[in-house]
TrEMBL record:
The modification N6-(pyridoxal phosphate)lysine is found at residue 234. This is Kynureninase. Catalyzes the cleavage of L-kynurenine (L-Kyn) and L-3-hydroxykynurenine (L-3OHKyn) into anthranilic acid (AA) and 3-hydroxyanthranilic acid (3-OHAA), respectively. Its EC number is 3.7.1.3. Pathway: Cofactor biosynthesis; NAD(+) biosynthesis; quinolinate from L-kynurenine: step 2/3; Amino-acid degradation; L-kynurenine degradation; L-alanine and anthranilate from L-kynurenine: step 1/1. One of its GO terms (molecular function) is pyridoxal phosphate binding. It catalyses: 3-hydroxy-L-kynurenine + H2O = 3-hydroxyanthranilate + L-alanine + H(+); L-kynurenine + H2O = anthranilate + L-alanine + H(+). GO terms for biological process: anthranilate metabolic process; L-kynurenine catabolic process; L-tryptophan catabolic process to kynurenine; NAD+ biosynthetic process; quinolinate biosynthetic process. One of its GO terms (cellular component) is cytoplasm.
Amino acid sequence: MHLAQTDLTRAAAEALDDADPLAGFRDRFAGVEDGLLYLDGNSLGRMPRDTPAALARVAEQEWGRGLVGSWASWIDVGTRVGDVIGTGVLGARPGEVLMANTTTVDLYELVVAAADARPGRDVLVCCADDFPTDRYVVAGIAAARGMTVREVPADVDEGLDPADLAAALDERVAVVVLSAVAYRSGALADVPAVTAAARDAGALVVWDLSHAAGAVELDLAANGVDLAVGCTYKYLNGGPGAPAFLYVRGELQESLRQPIWGWFGQRDQFAMGPVYDPVPGIGRFATGTPPVLAAAAVEVGARLVAEAGIDRLAAKGRALTGLLVDLADAHLAPHGVALASPRDAARRGSHVTLAHPHAWQLTQALVDRGVVPDFRTPDRVRLGPAPLYTRFVDVWDAVDRFRLLLEDGGWAAYPEERAPVT
Ligand SMILES: *Cc1c(COP(=O)(O)O)cnc(C)c1O
């Protein structure tokens, strides 16, 4: 259970920062000196200070001077950076993670591969409140294959009820697609229990780790997870449009065939042979030429997360969001702001969502007052304190500005009409 912090003063928040073993990581990010209260690292993580030099090195030396000869070292960038993410962030074993494509494409690959591995089953299960791309990919695959989608309802604040999921599992289900951390509420699914329940029903789960990687302990190998995908530009700080990752449990790799038969998955790639014959390992999930420049930024971001340690990051994430919840209860709830995330820290990722009928206007006003959250439909302000660089005092100051805004009513001057990007 969540124990309310008794001392909610700014000095108490400063004391938490003084005792924070991760405090030193903040200075390894650009722009932290600007004073902006950036609580949107779960949408686009900050830029590590080492990233521009890493990009410049690949551009100027490897591309600029090495030219095509640099492919000797670039050719395995997907598996090399995949291992940094897999072993350093996800608790996977070497050779189980590939950096490639986008989350959307990786999800498509793995859901089709998993459905092919369950012949005779004609149902795909997903969560009705999951991130749009996940639901659309599932719907598209079902339409193309004549399968049926079974959408499990989920509480937008509390996440999926395991009993609802259990009720959706039967011998017709081939694949289950779920987010480990719900993008809207931050609700954390019980990854080992869901994986085991699906396996008992003969189905495979493809986990989307986009809001979980770098924020919570995943221990994919220890938890028996079979398949997963996720993005690298949120808590992994890989930069806008950074390539995604996919995970396939080692024991499963050779038995799965993914639907995009590209030359980067091919055995003896430069033999340019007549038929597709994929390599046995994780490399068979590769498609075409990897984004070498973008990979350099992903590697810097993932190494920082690995260095900080996912256990310490997750613990700090729970402490940051716990402070946020306590402060919101004390100072925002009296103004009609309701918690729209699980109250129990063990059931949350590293973001907290607050509901208010004028959430969109509040979001715009907060940005003008130096607090960056994001707006999520229908009426939510989402605040993501990234444990690598957000201080406890940032959370305190952000809630204080939120309180002042509710008191002075300055949000009412902002348009109700939603912008194209929120
Ligand atoms: C951010 C996110 C994505 C992003 O997909 P892209 O293909 O990288 O744009 C997908 N799914 C979830 C759950 C996300 O949070």
